[in-house]
Specification:
heterodimer, A: about 170 residues, mainly alpha, 2 domains, 5 helices, B: about 700 residues, alpha+beta, six-stranded antiparallel sheet, four-stranded antiparallel sheet, 20 helices, about 15% strand, globular
Chain lengths: ~170, ~700
């Protein structure tokens, strides 16, 4: 009897543990999906045409309701559904691009002509640094070639310069 | 009365054309009377444009809805405060406002220098008039604010129509800061015309000496300061009004205002190379030119609809005028530079890469890289459409990814640059100046890391911020200690004396410190939190250490708007702390809604609460709460930057050498005969004090 009772307790405990594990896992998965959806939603623009926000941050100031519009909610729902179907982030984004065109992405995609958006702000300043470096090197070479001496300095000017330098040193 | 305003504007245009033509003739023929006449005409433009502005304001205050502009941007119930500001709320009025500010600057530039620089000022007058002609052309013939509404009676005869009430001012503009933000920003945009005029004038007239660069620098500082204040006020307005919890969205119009400010900053640094060592003259002249061109480009972006922006005015064909004007400016600048490039030959060369000169050079490169990255990102959608036919979106993540590393490098240079000596810095000096601040920065970073902060950029920003702050304070300390020891005063008054002796250098340090505060404030963004929830009375939401309990929602109404106001009790760590009252308003004339955000601000964090209104799905009230760390540092840093700029514009106090009763045989005995006396030290040459 006691053994039966123990077995029952064990079975119930196992079921409860299993239920907790499954529910907990489900909860965590659902929370992760929501966060993931939110992050993906931050990479696509809300396509309602009335704002410049992302699907996750859509906030219609000046509207009757200053919050996400129906379009943004639909987009987020679609992302959720695609996550549930096991699609990767890239696949989900690609799907939006196919549906709405490349404008839907909040930043230029790293492909084709859009690569230029990323490359140019890095390459051009580096090229400028290289140019300046060359100019400076040429300046320094020229300075080294300049014969010592330079223009003559009058004794008067030299004395004044010395006295001013001393004053500055005292300060 | 509208005829009066139109006539004043037309006369202003004619006078500007006269000032331009007569000025050129006077330069060629060297006739002093004609020079004076052209100058007076240039100054009179200010009076006439003022009359036009006063007329339009009169129409706003008298609710004259026969004028298209007034009826589109005002209504009878609009408070007087906003009727005044409605002047610049639309395309036509804001262009008139541009012209008025430009004519004000031109008036003062011509008036203050009427007896100075006789070789330079005629050119300055011509250039200022040229710019005025462009804007007055727009005011008179393209976007006139004095257009009346036409109606037809039963017989088909046309007459002036008068509406019973106007459409009202955009609710987003009905906020106190909007009364001051646009004028400040426009003072910046228009202000850059004056240094541009002086630089181009000096080049065209081959003005001898370096005086023009001092004048240019001073006027640039004025415009730069206004532009900075305008940008900050705009950011604060966006934060306090738009209700999205942020202050900077990298919107094309925001970016446009940042561009001339960045190149202006570059100029204010590189100009020291020219003043101190006669270097980078071509660079400086082009920086002034580019800054002005970016001002015109920014104005074009706001008004043409080339790029989509929440701030932009209605799409119009006005962009073509600006493109034409930009092309003319570029051609004139290029021709002036090409013809006179020998005039800008450098006096000196760079002696060492570890020197103040090279740090300015890098500072300029980094600033221009930042400027280019912002411009590139802003215009890339247009380029992309030209090339591929697809308009690509370039949103905040792009700008953050590209600009944050650049900004951090700039912050590093802010600390390094001022401590390097001119010409060459020795290794010992480097060690002496940087070891302490660097150790302090790294220690601050280590402590913060130990407390669990892991955001790389925020951590770097903190390390560099502490480093720069310590270098600045070390500079003040070193200088003040010398004065305190010599004069026997305390360190605080010695620091004050030090600052007043070299306002430009120490004012510059104060500006740098303000920038550090702004950077740290921006870094706080990495730790923002937000939550949105339906919140019926009795329900609560939690964010960070706060719990927000909804008490009730009530209706408020007046002639201008009706509002639903939320009453929220805020608990801090479980204890009742404060009440917040965010609102959701509907403006009656325009039938446009707007939120009134409730912000509880502290140096550590802002609790930012928006009542979003009723959910369209459930009709339940929705509250959106944000927890934004360190935002107050940005506004406080802005105030410090303004104070520092003001300080840097003050003239230096001349050093008074107080000679104490001298010890026997000391050098003072020889000068004063052993009696205490005060000697005036020789005045320092402006520009030689950095």
């Amino acid at each position: 009897m006691i053994r039966k009772f123990r077995r029952l307790v064990n079975r119930v405990a196992t079921c409860v543990l299993l239920a907790i594990t499954v529910l907990g896992f489900g909860f965590v998965t659902s929370a992760q999906q929501t966060d993931r959806a939110k992050n993906i939603g931050k990479k696509v623009k809300c396509v309602c045409g009335g704002c410049e926000d992302t699907a996750s941050t859509c906030n219609h100031t000046g509207g009757a309701f200053s919050g996400p519009c129906d379009t943004a909610k639909t987009m987020l729902k679609e992302i959720d559904q695609r996550i549930a179907r096991g699609e990767s982030d890239d696949m989900i984004l690609q799907n939006f691009v196919q549906e709405y065109g490349p404008t839907v992405l909040i930043e230029p995609p790293k492909q084709g002509f859009s690569w230029m958006a990323w490359i140019v702000p890095v390459v051009l300043p580096l090229w400028a640094v290289w140019m300046v470096w060359n100019v400076v090197r040429r300046w320094r070479e020229r300075a080294a070639l300049t014969p010592a001496g330079g223009p003559g300095v009058s004794a008067d000017l030299l004395a004044r310069a010395r006295s001013e330098a001393e004053k500055e040193r005292d300060e | 009365m509208d005829i009066f305003g139109s006539f004043a504007l037309l006369l202003a245009f004619i006078l500007a054309v006269y000032a331009f033509v007569a000025g050129i003739v006077a330069i060629v023929t060297r006739r002093p009377l004609l020079t004076k006449s052209a100058r007076n005409a240039g100054m009179a433009v200010f009076v006439l444009v003022t009359l036009a502005v006063a007329t339009l304001e009169y129409f706003f205050f008298t609710n004259n809805f026969s004028l298209a502009y007034v009826s589109a941007h005002s209504n009878s119930a609009l408070p007087g405060f906003y009727k005044f500001a409605a002047l610049w709320s639309g395309q036509e009025g804001s262009l008139l406002w541009w012209s008025w500010l430009l004519s004000t600057y031109a008036f003062w530039a011509l008036f203050l220098n009427r007896k100075k620089h006789p070789e330079l000022m005629p050119y300055v007058g011509v250039i200022l008039s040229g710019v005025q002609i462009f804007f007055l052309t727009l005011n008179n013939f393209v976007a006139t604010p004095f257009k009346v509404l036409a109606g037809a009676d039963a017989s088909g005869a046309m007459h002036i129509a008068r509406l019973s009430d106007g459409s009202g001012l955009n609710p987003l503009l009905q906020y106190p800061e909007m009364v001051i933000h646009p004028p400040m920003l426009y003072l910046g945009y228009t202000g850059f015309t004056v240094p541009f005029a002086f630089a181009l004038a000096a080049l065209l007239g081959r003005y001898p000496g370096e005086k023009w660069i001092h004048i240019t620098r001073r006027w640039t500082m004025v415009a730069w300061c206004f532009q900075g204040v305008g940008i900050l006020l705009g950011a604060h307005w966006a934060y306090a009004v738009l209700g999205w919890g942020g202050y900077w969205a990298w919107d094309p119009v925001e970016n446009a205002s940042l561009l001339p400010w960045i190149t202006g900053t570059a100029f204010l640094h590189s100009v020291m190379m020219q003043e101190k060592r006669g270097m980078m003259k071509v660079w400086n002249v082009w920086l002034v030119f580019v800054t002005f061109m970016l001002c015109i480009l920014g104005t074009m972006l706001t008004r043409s609809g080339v790029v989509s922006s929440v701030h932009a005015f209605a799409e119009s064909s006005i962009g073509g005028w600006f493109v034409g004007f930009l092309a003319i400016i570029f051609l004139v600048c290029f021709a002036a530079w090409w013809k006179n490039r020998d005039y800008l030959r450098s006096d000196n060369q760079l002696d060492s890469l570890v020197s103040r000169e090279s740090s300015f050079l890098f500072n300029n490169l980094i600033l221009l890289a930042a400027c280019f990255a912002v411009l590139w990102g802003t215009l890339f959608p247009v380029f992309s459409e030209w090339v591929t036919g697809n308009k690509i979106s370039v949103g905040p993540p792009f700008f953050n990814k590209v600009n944050i590393p650049i900004a951090l490098f700039l912050l590093l240079l802010t600390g390094v640059g001022p401590l390097l000596a001119w010409r060459k810095t020795s290794y010992d000096a480097l060690k002496r100046n940087f070891a302490g601040p660097l150790a302090g920065g790294i220690a601050a970073g280590a402590v913060t890391f130990a407390f669990g902060f892991r955001d790389f950029y925020a951590l770097m920003c903190l390390i560099l911020g502490v480093f720069v702050t310590l270098t600045i304070f070390a500079e003040f300390y070193r200088g003040a200690r010398v004065i305190a020891q010599r004069d026997g005063t305390n360190m605080l008054s010695a620091a004050g004396e030090l600052t007043m002796r070299n306002t430009r250098r120490y004012g510059g340090y104060v500006v740098h410190f303000g920038m550090v505060l702004i950077f740290i404030g921006i870094a706080g963004q990495a730790f923002n939190q937000d939550i949105q929830k339906e919140l019926n009375p009795g329900q609560s939401l939690a964010i960070g250490p706060y719990t927000i309990l909804s008490q009730n929602y009530d209706d408020i109404a007046n002639d201008n708007y009706q509002s639903e106001r939320a009453t929220l009790e805020v608990f801090y760590k479980g204890k009742s702390d404060m009440m917040l009252y965010p609102e959701h308003r509907l403006y009656l004339a325009s039938q446009v809604s707007s939120t009134m955000v409730a912000i509880e601000s502290s140096p550590l964090r802002d609790l930012y609460v928006v009542y979003a209104g009723r959910s369209p799905d459930t009709n339940q009230p929705v509250v959106h709460a944000y927890l934004n760390p360190l935002v107050k540092w940005i506004w406080f840093g802005g105030i410090v930057v303004i104070l520092g700029t003001g300080l840097a514009m003050l003239p230096n106090r001349r050093a008074a050498l107080v000679l104490r009763p001298a010890a026997e045989g000391s050098w003072a005995e020889g000068v004063s005969g052993g009696h205490p006396s005060t000697l005036q030290a020789p005045a320092r040459r402006s520009g030689a004090d950095d």
